[in-house]
Design brief:
Elements lengths: L2 E9 L4 H16 L4 E8 L6 E8 L2 H8 L2 H13 E9 L3
Antiparallel strand pairs: 1-3, 1-4, 2-3
Helix pairs in contact: 1-3
GO molecular function, one term: monooxygenase activity
Keywords: Monooxygenase, Oxidoreductase
Protein name: Antibiotic biosynthesis monooxygenase
């Protein structure tokens, strides 16, 4: 069953541009991953430093592989420096 993922990230003050660049760097490698149906990044028009990803994966195990990929692991290492807070929704389309 396909898995829908919605992730929002809020940059720390002064880190908005840095987070934007790091997040943009996740697009190409993630879109090339097995099981990625779509992986889209959105930049808020109303709130500086707020980003949202909408994603669909063929299965949850393939998303789990994504979460353990080298580019996500590298992002996780930078997250504390760049991200004020984040939320993650995972679910199934009904």
């Amino acid at each position: 069953m396909p898995l829908t993922v919605i992730a929002t990230l809020k940059a720390k003050a002064g880190k908005e541009d840095a987070l934007y660049e790091v997040l943009k760097g996740l697009l190409a490698p993630t879109r090339a991953e097995k099981g990625c149906v779509f992986y889209d990044m959105h930049k808020s028009a109303d709130e500086s430093g707020l980003f949202m990803f909408t994603e669909e994966w063929e299965t949850r195990p393939l998303w789990d592989d994504h979460m353990n990929s080298p580019h996500l692991t590298a992002f996780s290492a930078q997250q504390d420096d760049l991200v004020e807070n984040w939320t993650l929704f995972t679910g199934e389309k009904v």
